[in-house]
Automatic annotation (TrEMBL), chain A:
Statement: the UniProt record of this protein carries the keyword Nucleotide-binding: yes
InterPro entries tied to this protein: AAA+_ATPase, ABC_carbohydrate_import_ATPase, ABC_transporter-like_ATP-bd, ABC_transporter-like_CS, P-loop_NTPase
Domain ABC transporter: 21-511
GO terms for biological process, alphabetical: monosaccharide transmembrane transport
Protein name from the UniProt record: Ribose transport system ATP-binding protein
From TrEMBL, chain B:
Subcellular location(s) per record: Cell membrane
Transmembrane segments: 21-42, 54-75, 82-101, 107-132, 139-157, 186-210, 231-249, 285-305, 311-328
Gene Ontology terms, MF aspect: transmembrane transporter activity
InterPro entries reported for this sequence: ABC_transp_permease (IPR001851)
Presence of keyword Secreted: no
Organism domain of life: Bacteria
Pfam families: BPD_transp_2 (PF02653)
Lineage, top ranks: Bacteria, Bacillati, Actinomycetota, Actinomycetes, Propionibacteriales
Name of the protein this chain belongs to: Ribose transport system permease protein
Species per Swiss-Prot/TrEMBL record: Tessaracoccus bendigoensis DSM 12906
One Gene Ontology term, aspect cellular component: plasma membrane
Keywords: Cell membrane, Membrane, Transmembrane, Transmembrane helix
Length: 522, 336
């Protein structure tokens, strides 16, 4: 099956518009989740093909299948009309399919040139590395891309943007015809984005093509020639970018108008439970001030790298703050270690549950009681029975799906892992809960459950800071929204006045007028 | 939302066997290997199974067993401690100098014992502070401290063996027999193993040590002062090193400043054979004791068979490799 809107006759070899890479009816099932269902995608030479969709739409899965990281369960993949199998990322690379991941796979202590040619170093006398040739070849590649990077520089000394260029140069060195980029601009500044676009232009030729995965609509409109939209693992449409407006794309992505009528009733509360004043950290955060009222959800919106997670981490003492004041329940407190924050009743649920939230090789019980161990010891001895009872209680209250409380955390799904982290803080009786991307990596059904839980928690008097990159989530859950950009809070929006456009406007307000930064309080 | 999703969340363990039984199975394997070795040596040389030989074999396991117990706490946190071997030398010499009649201060015996334990705890404290607060790599910090112990023992003893023969009853600590035919050292090891087992599995100390070894950052974010608990793990290890110092000098009725080199390797090997993962997050107290006995069984059995000392070490190395390989297979060749 060919995607609609791409039915042109294949052009002769070496001409733009020829079919290069096809995914035909590709499906992928993970235990319990159908990540991709009969998805087709056609990439033609000479084009920048944007792949868009909400989180969990299946973009990453498709990309991982095309790059040999995952194996598809159904359908087939063709390269220049020939069916191919990609058992490993290396095989994809050898066939000319390169991926620029969000995290780079570079060896920080090696030089740019060494990284580009790792495993393929030019040799003299058959075994000695020929550094001169190595650097020369790297320089040629970088020149072809039109970037000004010293091939002898250590990768660790480069900016994120420059490291990305090194990855692209590496792809070019494999003579890749397909370059797949996953959110390449997420960590770049505006000028760096422009450089990236120029370099993508330099990469494109009548025999190559780029797959561009992004959430940033403006970029997609500016850069891409074709747009394919996925939703909940299904193919929605492929259309020329010129025929689509941004609202059109959003409409296709969400499949429904972003409803404003499902917003919560504004909660009338004027009892501040947590005040943060002039919080700063080196090097990112500058003068972040906000107040959290009892029983509200304060949403934190912003682009990636705006400083929302950093704010949370500094607030709970996980990272040092260079300046700032924290007031809990009216009295100033000093927080220099997460233990201090927990003692004040502040619990943090990280976006990266596996790294910062869970002890993966321990069971549900151990994870539930982790923050409350002293309450479960009698004469120095842990009360196993009591711990299990409590874990069981939270499993029932939060409706965590697990065969038993003895189940190891690693065997639970993302949504249920999230509930166990939540149980940990509820057992510790935290009144302020900071949810960092509460539904990241959680499938659509479980999301709704998490939303219901957040609502229920605030009804019970808990106060929530919710950091989220999903616009819909922020709009739907928050009583008030703080928007951050570049380490500052650029504005607060009340639930009644907030729109996607207003948030976006504040989130991209890179240059802030100095005098209104610190005093923005709702 | 659909039926699919419900199967998603039942979260069955991989490969059928529930995780908590896997641990039992592995412990069973360790014991099985030991039994097979005993049967093998007995078949080759029936003398091996005489009670006299078995009890001397067990007594010889005590020092490594005690050190492996303490080391289990450090390894549980994901660290390593190389000081048990020469730490034993320096603590035993320190204790001996306090009580020895010649070349010592001639203080009462209990002062020497407490001094030896205190020196061990201090050594552990220094190791712990270097690792947790100065943020040195455990391998390097304890390697350096091992050298300090090495030299320290020689300095304290002035390069000679400190004799404790004239101290009445000192040898009884390890070789006396409160229960007929069972050396006290073996009893002490069993009692210490029970205590260590309780501390590891039934108290906050073990709970936090294992949590830190599995995921230090998540433990810290949960409001636990991970540095403090890490230091405690090293102090426990040092304390057990001190206990091994008392047991060793009691067994020999002397403190030798040069004895202890390589013992840290036996302690690590004992823990590994017993199923403790050097990646941290998993420790077996029972396994550490069985591991120590297994090592002595190999040495003793091969000696009885007339195999040269050099070859015994090669065999031990092979057994450690095998133990690590079995551990990797158990996890299906995946990172834990």
């Amino acid at each position: 099956m060919t995607a609609p809107g791409t039915e042109a006759e294949p052009a002769p070899t070496g001409r733009a518009g020829e079919i290069l890479l096809e995914a035909d009816g590709v499906s992928k099932v993970f235990p319990g989740v159908r990540a991709l269902n009969d998805v087709s995608f056609t990439l033609r030479t000479g084009e920048v093909h944007a792949l868009v969709g909400e989180n969990g739409a299946g973009k990453s899965t498709l990309m991982k299948i095309l790059s040999g990281l995952y194996q598809h369960d159904g359908g087939e993949i063709r390269l220049r009309g020939e069916r191919i199998v990609l058992p490993t990322p290396l095989s994809a690379q050898q066939m000319g399919i390169s991926v620029i991941h969000q995290e780079f796979f570079l060896m920080n202590h090696l030089t740019v040139a060494q990284n580009i040619f790792i495993g393929r170093e030019p040799k003299t006398m058959g075994f000695l590395n020929d550094d001169a040739a190595l650097n020369r070849q790297a320089e040629e590649l970088l020149d072809r891309l039109g970037v000004n990077i010293d091939p002898r520089a250590r990768v660790s000394t480069l900016t994120v943007a420059a490291q990305q260029m090194v990855e692209i140069a590496k792809a070019l060195s494999f003579n890749s015809s397909v370059l797949i980029m996953d959110e390449p601009t997420a960590a770049l500044t505006e000028t760096e984005v422009e450089t990236l676009f120029r370099i993508i232009g330099n990469f494109l030729s009548p025999t190559t093509a780029v797959v561009y995965i992004s959430h940033r609509m403006e970029e997609i409109r500016k850069l891409s020639t074709q747009v394919t939209v996925l939703r909940d693992g299904e193919f929605v449409a492929t259309k020329p970018a010129s025929e689509l407006t941004i609202p059109d794309i959003i409409q296709l992505m969400v499949g429904r108008k972003i409803a404003s009528d499902i917003r919560p009733e504004p909660r009338a509360s004027t009892e501040p439970i947590l005040e943060v004043k002039h919080l700063s950290t080196a090097p990112l955060l500058k003068d972040v001030s906000f107040t959290l009222e009892k029983g509200e959800i304060l949403g934190f919106a912003g682009l990636m790298g705006a400083g929302r997670t950093e704010t949370a981490r500094a607030l709970i003492g996980a990272d040092p703050m260079t300046d700032g004041e924290v007031i809990v329940g009216g009295k100033p407190v000093k927080i220099t270690h997460p233990a201090d924050a927990v003692a004040e009743g502040i619990g943090y649920l990280s976006e990266d549950r596996k790294r910062y939230g869970l002890i993966l090789n321990q069971d549900v019980t151990a994870n539930t009681v982790l923050a409350s161990i002293p309450a479960f010891t009698k004469g120095g001895i842990l009360q196993d029975g009591k711990m299990k009872q409590v874990a069981q209680k939270w499993v029932e209250v939060l409706r965590t799906r697990t065969p038993s409380v003895n189940q190891r955390i690693r065997n639970l799904s993302g949504g249920n892992q999230q509930k166990v982290v939540l149980a940990k803080w509820l057992e510790r009786d935290c009144d302020v809960l900071i949810f960092d991307e509460p539904t990241r990596g959680i499938d659509v059904g479980a999301k709704q459950e998490i939303y219901d839980l957040l609502d229920k928690l605030t009804d019970e008097g808990k106060s929530i800071i919710m950091i989220s990159s999903e616009m819909e989530e922020v709009l739907r859950m928050s009583d008030r929204i703080a928007v951050m950009c570049n380490g500052r809070i650029t504005g607060f929006l009340d639930n009644s006045e907030a729109t996607q456009e207003k948030i976006m406007e504040l989130a991209t307000q890179f240059s802030v007028i100095e005098d209104n930064t610190s005093e923005v309080q709702s | 939302m659909t039926a699919m999703q419900d199967t998603a969340v039942t979260g069955r363990a991989r490969r059928g066997i529930p995780d908590r039984y896997k641990a039992f199975i592995q412990q069973g394997m360790v014991v099985l290997v030991l039994i097979v070795l005993v049967i093998f040596f007995t078949a080759m040389k029936p003398n091996f199974a005489s009670w006299g030989n078995i009890s001397s074999l067990l007594l010889a396991s005590v020092v490594t067993g005690v050190q492996a117990l303490g080391l289990s706490f450090v390894i549980a946190t994901g660290g390593i401690d190389l000081t048990p071997g020469l730490g034993m030398a320096v603590t035993s010499v320190f204790g001996a100098v306090l009580i020895a009649q010649q070349g010592g201060f001639g203080l009462p015996m209990w002062v020497g014992i407490l001094g030896c334990l205190a020196a061990g705890a201090l050594l552990g404290l220094i190791n712990g502070l270097l690792v947790a607060y100065v943020k040195m790599q455990p391998m390097i910090a304890t390697l350096a401290m091992m050298m300090v112990c090495w030299g320290g023992a020689l300095v304290l003893a002035d390069g000679r063996t400190v004799s404790l023969r004239s101290i009445e009853g000192y040898d009884q600590i390890a070789v006396g027999q409160l229960i007929p035919q069972v050396p006290n050292g073996v009893l002490i090891l069993i009692v210490l193993a029970v205590i260590a087992g309780v501390v590891m599995n039934k108290t906050a100390v073990g709970r936090y040590a294992l949590a830190i070894g599995s995921n230090e950052e998540a433990t810290r974010i949960s409001g636990i002062n991970t540095n403090r608990w890490k230091v405690l793990a090293y102090v426990i290890c040092g304390l057990f090193t001190g206990i091994s110092g008392v047991l060793m000098s009691s067994r020999l009725s002397a403190a030798q400043p040069t004895l202890g080199q390589g013992y840290e390797m036996y302690a690590i090997a004992a823990a590994v054979i017993g199923g403790t993962s050097l990646r941290g997050g998993r420790a077996s107290i029972f396994g550490a004791v069985i591991g120590a006995v297994t090592i002595q069984t190999i040495f003793n059995g091969l000696t009885v068979m007339g195999v040269q000392d050099q070859w015994q070490k090669v065999v031990l190395g092979a057994v450690v490799l095998l133990a690590v390989y079995v551990d990797i297979m158990r996890r299906g060749g995946k990172e834990e």
